[in-house]
Amino acid sequence: MLTHTEQPTVLIVEDEPAQREVLAYNLEAEGFRVAKAENGDEALMLVEEMAPDLIVLDWMLPSVSGIEVCRRLKTRNDTRAMPIIMLSARAEEVDRVRGLETGADDYVVKPYSVIELMARVRALLRRTRPASVGQTLEFEDIRLDPETHKVFRADQPLKLGPTEFRLLSTFMEKPGRVWSREQLLDRVWGRDIYVDTRTVDVHIGRLRKALCQYGGEDPVRTVRGAGYALG
What is the pLDDT of residue 212? Predict the structure, then answer.
């Protein structure tokens, strides 16, 4: 069973309250953390705050349309790889092509089968959050096994606390990506827990010490004014 902070986060962007709640109910039943937005502006703000693992995005939204939200996210380096499933009542091939060309990773026509949509969500997350489905992660000489909660560097077993393990898992799923302190707080501690951002720095320090306990260079990079990255 995944712990709360290991659960992938899915952002639902849907202006119809009934549809939004049905999606949220089914995603939570599947074990995902869920965030909800009812328009494009709110969606873009939440992406900034929490960096969700996947977005289920309705095409027809008030103010900023779903297709515009998708276009903006896919043109930014920090959100380009974020998987997006576009929902639309537009069944014409030209609309499907437009949605995919804008950058959507999948396109689902309304009305849709909830079971099929859940399968598509899981398929995309297997690609982008491998640790959440138990796949071993590797970066240079570091190996992390989420099933056994063991970490090795140059084949030497490392001792990591649970918070440091979750931090390393987050970094290793997206090497090179810069995470802000706020995004790490959300991913590692959870949105509903109040922790000071300085706590992140303390645990990054512990992670660095653990990773370098047998020597080797520190693989965690501090990006001034932005946060931290692996490699």
Answer: 94
